[in-house]
Every structure is written in structure tokens, then in C-alpha cells.
């Protein structure tokens, strides 16, 4: 191998290694929680399916206001004790009983957050799954996952209560 070819190969290897180092490891984290209820899937979907119904079943949400932003449905959540979360509806499928949303603004320790809530039949009742992916922001991955898991657990408890009425 000539000196020029060797220098070119070394530069390419170094450049690739440097690019991988700068990019760093993937920061994406996941959270997932599920709950079953004796409520029929239709009753569970009725409780959770409306994009702004979160104010009726999540204990941390004092108020939900719907608006439209660039053709996308947006909800603004006023939190108990102060704070606001702004979320956009990404997709909705009433037949599959699911919707996906993403956070636009929030005090939560996450960035690039996207989440899906799904209701499925489970025996005589239903199962509700709430999953999300995000990048930790301003907190460790463990801390961010713990916060989101807590939000999911409290919300799922509220959904079951609402669905079983």
C-alpha cells in the first residue's frame, strides 16, 4: 500500500470513528405500563378515547383545552399545582381503539416524547396499554423513566375507575 493510500485509509477510519464518537450512544428510552379492567373494550375506549378526556381520568390534569395548530389537533393540559403540557395528536384509529400523541412543550424531563394508548379485548374485560419513547432531558434515563412510569400508573388507575363506572 502506498503512503498516500495508507494516509487516506487512516483518515477515513479516523473520520468514521470520530463521527460515531460525536454521535454518541442512542439516548432513546422507553416506558410501558398496562392494566386490565372488567370494563368492556367499548367502555374503556369511551373513557380514554376522547383526546381531551385525560382531564377526567388523570389525577395530575386539572384542565384540558383543545385547539388546532397547522391542521393538527392540540391539547393544552393545565396541571394540578401549576405547569402546562402541550401535546399534538399524531394519529388516531377508533376501530383499533388507539391514539398516538407527542409532547410539544412540557416541564417533564423528556424530549422527543411520543406515546400511544391502546385498548384491546381481554377475556370478558379489556386491557389498556400506554407506551412511550423519549430522550431523557435534564435527568438521567432512570429518573426520566421513573417519572413517565408514574404518570402512566396514575393515569391507568384513573382510566379503570372511569371505565368501570
TrEMBL record:
SUPFAM superfamilies: Bet v1-like. Keywords: Signal. It holds the Pfam family Polyketide_cyc2. Residues 1-28 form the signal peptide. The keyword Magnesium does not apply. InterPro entries: Polyketide_cyclase/dehydratase, START-like_dom_sf. This is SRPBCC family protein. It comes from Acuticoccus sediminis. The lineage of its organism: Bacteria, Pseudomonadati, Pseudomonadota, Alphaproteobacteria, Hyphomicrobiales.
